[in-house]
Design brief:
alpha/beta; TIM Barrel; Immunoglobulin-like; 2 domains; 6-stranded antiparallel beta sheet; 11 helices; about 30% helix; about 20% strand
Length: about 375
């Protein structure tokens, strides 16, 4: 399908003390160097990583550095590693997160322990990187320290669940694009328009380093469980929104659990709630986009891909059009992010030339000031 990295949410044992629901939160880490027995053994995980490597993919794991479960052994062995309330008691980092307690990164011994625990998974299981949970709630200099210590074992990929540009300076390769996710929802629901999307990408180019990767998505585990399914938020516009996530500058698109099988329900967060795998109706759609993303230098990440050149149209409210070019490689994207049919003129000539469709392979010649008829939520991706 063109997937390069497989991200596993926390595979560590889940705390029992203060557990929410029956299964608990996988972010309530009970032991940083063990595998949750519900998932298998550490040998099973080593074999899985090895198989992924054989298939040409990388594996990263979710790392929860900000807090532990109440019954993680280090709470009893090293209570000085935790923040305390005014009465000297352990406390959650956020009031609603009552099943976990907050770690104190002013403590140098905690930092040493945490880095050694992270290094364990690299040395023992040959993983390829980390997704840092709530990275903004842990001091940036810890992440910089961790990367400097662990990367010499092997080069790793570091993803921050954050939108802080400073995380890219020395610590992380990629960061979350929450703002784009919420903005896309507002555009699809008619509360914002395409000009707001262009402004977002202009802002991002000014704020983030040129080599920063941004994780763009139409759904993920938090959004699905707490805020609604992809269909609930984007309706018939979900596919068009994902096209933008896959073709925008700096983009590293996320494909979440069962999107290719059109997962259409919210998964319960604190219960065992298996996905009902059916057929895979969206597989060809994602495969076309993600293989193009990998193979065409115009869509490569960060400074290695082509810049976004906006194509003005006669409808700048719901129709988005742009080209990205790297040497002779060119990708031309047209999106109707509104619920009505549109007849538009594409102004200028930046998109002129002969292309083929990324989805059907059909050839198409575009001339200056071309007119297009677009159906509601229609997306077109043309490749040169």
């Amino acid at each position: 399908m063109g997937i390069g990295i497989v991200w596993f949410m926390p595979i560590t044992p889940i705390g029992e003390k203060g557990r929410k629901g029956t299964f608990g939160s996988y972010y309530a880490v009970q032991n940083y160097t063990a595998v949750n027995p519900d998932y298998g053994t550490i040998e099973d995980f080593k074999n899985l990583v090895h198989k992924a490597h054989e298939l040409g993919m990388y594996v990263i794991i979710d790392w929860v550095a900000n807090h532990t479960s109440w019954d993680n052994p280090i709470a009893a062995e090293h209570p000085e590693w935790y923040t305390k309330d005014k009465d000297g008691n352990f406390q959650p980092p956020v009031a609603d997160w009552s099943d976990v307690i907050d770690l104190d990164y002013n403590n140098a011994e905690l930092r040493k322990y945490m880095i050694e625990a992270m290094a364990f998974w690299v040395k023992e299981c040959d993983i390829d990187g980390f997704r840092a949970d709530v990275a903004e709630m842990v001091p940036t200099d810890f992440w910089e320290q961790a990367r400097a210590k662990i990367d010499p074992i092997k080069p790793l990929f570091w993803l921050a669940e954050s939108e802080k540009a400073e995380h890219h300076t020395k610590a992380f390769d990629a960061s979350y694009g929450w703002e784009l996710h919420h903005l896309l929802k507002d555009v699809v629901q008619g509360n914002k328009n395409v000009t707001d999307l262009y402004a977002y990408f202009d802002r991002t180019a000014e704020t983030f380093p040129s080599d920063a990767y941004r994780l763009y998505f139409t759904t993920n585990h938090d959004e699905n469980s707490w805020n609604g399914t992809e269909k609930e938020k984007f309706g018939e516009g979900a596919a068009a929104c994902f096209v933008l996530c896959a073709t925008a500058p700096g983009s590293m698109p996320l494909l979440y659990t069962a999107q290719e099988s059109q997962l259409d329900r919210r998964l319960k967060f604190f219960e065992k709630d298996p996905v009902e795998w059916r057929d895979y109706p969206m597989t060809s759609f994602y495969t076309a986009l993600l293989q193009l993303k990998q193979s065409n230098p115009a869509l490569w990440n960060g400074k290695w891909g082509g810049k976004m050149t906006r194509i003005a149209t006669t409808n700048d409210k719901s129709v988005m059009a742009f080209v990205r070019q790297n040497d002779k490689n060119k990708v031309f994207v047209v999106l109707n992010l509104g619920g009505g049919n549109e007849n538009v003129q594409l102004n200028g000539s930046d998109y002129e030339g002969e292309y083929h469709s990324a989805f059907s392979g059909k050839p198409q010649t575009f001339k200056a000031n071309q007119t297009l008829s677009l159906k509601a939520w229609e997306y077109q991706v043309w490749v040169k």
